[in-house]
Amino acid sequence: MTDHPTLTTERLTLTPPTPADLPCYAAFYEESDVTVGGYRGGRSDAEVAAIHARDMAHWRDHGHGMFLIRLREADRFVGGAGIIYPEGWSCHELTWFLRPDARGAGVATEASLAVIAWACRDLGWAAVETLMRDENVAAHRLAQRLGGRVDRRETFPDGVARDVYVLPCPEAAA
Amino acid sequence: MTPTLTTERLSLGPCAEAHLDAFTAFVATEASRFLGGPSEDPTDAWWSCAAHAGQWTLRGYGTFWLTDRVTGAPVGRVGPWHPGWAAEPDMSWVVYPAFEGRGLAHEAARAVLDWAARERGLTALASFVNPDNARSLALARRLGAREERRSVSRDGETAIVFRHGRAEAA
User: Fold this and answer.
1) Is A47 an 8 Å CB contact of chain B?
2) Looking at the partner chain, which of A39, A50, A157 has a beta carbon nearest the beta carbon of B158?
3) Which CATH architecture best describes the domain A7-173?
4) Nearest-neighbour CA in chain A from B99: distance (Å)
5) B128 pLDDT exceeds 50?
6) What is the pTM of this model?
7) Which residues of B touch A157 (CB under 8 A)?
8) Which domain CATH number covers B77?
């Protein structure tokens, strides 16, 4: 079990959520312009608190989960990236979200590479998977930038069929 | 195929045309919000009824449509809904607003839980209830179901998972 690892990249610090991070979730869901799925905005305080609690419990139950991303220089919360098992689903997924003003700067790519490298090195995984709706073009592009290839197509517990990408470990960790 | 059960005030059975009409009217209203409504598209109700009927063929159990035994009016739908992508069935209930407050959902759910345990060995069904759905929470508790956990789905939707037990709160 790797309790509360901190990952550091050139520009970012990634840490698992703590009880003190509820305001980060509140800020993100307040700003979110996403209309579908886990990152959609327009949620009540209770819903946001439940999502925060879910992400903390995930670390306890699985030894991995969502990391919150902060800019190292500004110490500003800008989003999240991590590996989660959605309840009732058959597989894990790399997932990420960014505050609207943090997009377009390569933050999701930098954070995702750090999470993948950590999973390969510290969890001993051979690869990480990710999946997204067909219309989520940005997520498909990111998966491809991460060296991912489509491994299969699956219908998930919400009835939506998605491509599943396998994201390789960094060469050095292989 | 869907068997027919009889309770004191209700008959429980397959989806007849009157049920389809009543359900179509129901999903067009705000009262259907905990079922993913409202929807003005009548094909949504048709597909839902077809899927619920089809589940009987594919799994050998499913939901029952409720009819008032005296008037013949469609009252709602109760039973274990278990689509192909779900990890386990959801013992669910819908009673149309005009029939609320008379204990009909409880009467039907009790009969379906007994049938499911007796005829299909489904002795520990779960009900996934939206925490804002006060009527549904009250019914789950009245049925003697125990609050097992709070589930937050991948999509961030919160549900309270109730677990039904056999021969409780008869």
Assistant:
1) yes
2) A50
3) 3-Layer(aba) Sandwich (3.40)
4) 30
5) yes
6) 0.81
7) 85-87
8) 3.40.630.30
In this prediction the ipTM stands at 0.80
E strand map for B29-100: 64-68, 74-81, 90-95
Gap between the Cα atoms of B21 and B24, Å rounded: 5
The nearest CA of chain B is from the CA of A54 a distance in Å of: 6
Where chain A has pLDDT below 50, the residues are: 1-2, 173-174
Residues above pLDDT 70, as percent of chain B? 97
| Average pLDDT over chain B, rounded to an integer | 94
DSSP codes joined into one string, B123-155: -S-EEEE-TT-HHHHHHHHHTT-EEEEEEE-TT
Q: How confident is the model at residue A59, as a pLDDT?
A: 96
State which residue of chain B sits closest to A93, comparing Cα positions.
B154
Structural domain boundaries in chain A: 7-173
Select from A50, A84, A157 the Cβ nearest to the Cβ of B87.
A157
pLDDT for res B170: 42
